[in-house]
């Protein structure tokens, strides 16, 4: 039973640790041996071990050296065995470091942190979002899951990349989805709308199955798939098609040149949209009065949510009621 447990521990031990233990045992053996063979040259066992390490590492300080034939034969044997082991140990460390860097770049390494953001899908929107998030919070940890991207340079994008399918539990486990703070699923634009939405919904189901409480923001292209995404467990639905259509219409109906919309989006990236429950003391008050009240706290009131319906910029005399949710814009 003891032998079986020892074998189990031995085979589970990383090769670097095995090599280090072997080198330590071998150096101690040669150090003790040379001490007994030439006690005058090596008065203590520690000095013998010191000589063994210096000789095997081919450093050769020359402070200790065997003078007898027996001692020199031991030195030759040490060089042939210990020197090769130490060289292999150093090479293993170097190759292990390179392999780890490659595993990070090619998305093979498990993420072990907590409280991170999980992004599913790599596209221009994701790239810009990563940039905005890190500009506003450089300490934010981001894990990207994508099945089409081959590798991500950490120097260019300081994120943790996981290569794989976000609908698979093993891939989500690599991203440590159970301890993530939020998840964002972007649509795969290289596919048609139905296929892209199907993947988004399946990824939502998989994420919700692995983490019951995580907020999931899902991008849906087709209006008919919104209910399915909500049933799958998405907490927020983003319909980029509707937004882009409204933006195009706005540009088509305005002949006078205005500030480029991307500049406006950059400004908005420095702000934060918030949903605030209506405080009891603000019930039965008009929209204008509540808006003035919130401005004192650096909150710009955009509208409300009532019965799951958005009402943006209602009239000034619009009266708010119990259960309304305020939609505000605040500085980050």
TrEMBL record:
UniProt keyword annotation of Transport present: yes
One GO CC term, this protein: plasma membrane
Keywords linked to the UniProt accession: Ion channel, Ion transport, Membrane, Transmembrane, Transmembrane helix, Transport
Source organism, top-level taxon: Bacteria
Membrane-spanning parts: 15-37, 49-66, 73-90
Segments forming domain RCK N-terminal: 114-239
PROSITE patterns for the chain: RCK_N
Membrane topology, as annotated: Multi-pass membrane protein
A Pfam family the protein falls into: TrkA_N
Subcellular location: Cell membrane
One GO BP: monoatomic ion transmembrane transport
InterPro entries linked: K_chnl_dom (IPR013099), NAD(P)-bd_dom_sf (IPR036291), RCK_N (IPR003148), Trk_Ktr_HKT_K-transport (IPR050721)
Listed name of the protein: Potassium channel protein
């Amino acid at each position: 039973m003891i032998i079986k447990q020892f074998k189990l521990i031995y085979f589970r031990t990383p090769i670097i640790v095995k090599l280090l233990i072997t080198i330590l045992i071998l150096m101690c053996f040669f150090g003790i041996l040379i001490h007994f063979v030439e006690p005058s040259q090596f008065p203590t066992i520690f000095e013998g071990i010191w000589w063994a390490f210096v000789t095997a590492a081919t450093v050769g300080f020359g402070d200790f050296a065997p003078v007898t034939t027996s001692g020199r034969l031991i030195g030759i044997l040490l060089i042939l065995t210990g020197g090769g082991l130490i060289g292999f140990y150093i090479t293993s460390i170097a190759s292990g470091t390179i392999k780890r860097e490659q595993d990070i770049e090619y998305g093979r390494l498990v993420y072990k942190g907590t409280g991170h953001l999980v992004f599913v899908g790599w596209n221009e929107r994701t790239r810009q979002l990563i940039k905005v998030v890190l500009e506003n919070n450089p300490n934010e940890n981001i894990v990207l899951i994508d099945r089409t991207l081959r590798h991500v340079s950490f120097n260019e994008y300081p994120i943790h990349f996981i290569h794989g399918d976000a609908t698979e539990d093993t891939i989500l486990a690599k991203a440590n989805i159970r301890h993530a703070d939020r998840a964002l699923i972007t649509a795969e634009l290289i596919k048609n709308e139905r296929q892209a939405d199907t993947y988004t919904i399946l990824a939502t189901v998989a994420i919700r199955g692995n983490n019951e409480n995580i907020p999931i923001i899902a991008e849906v292209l087709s209006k008919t798939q919104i209910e399915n995404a909500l049933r799958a467990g998405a907490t927020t639905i983003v319909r980029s098609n509707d937004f882009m259509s409204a933006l195009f219409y706005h540009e088509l109906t305005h002949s006078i040149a205005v500030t480029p919309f991307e500049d406006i989006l950059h400004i908005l990236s420095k702000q934060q949209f918030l949903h605030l429950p209506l405080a009891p003391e603000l019930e039965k008050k008009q929209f204008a009065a509540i808006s003035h009240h919130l401005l004192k706290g650096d909150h710009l009131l955009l509208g409300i949510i009532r019965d799951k319906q958005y009402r943006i910029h209602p009239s000034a005399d619009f009266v708010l009621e119990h259960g309304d949710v305020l939609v505000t814009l605040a500085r980050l």
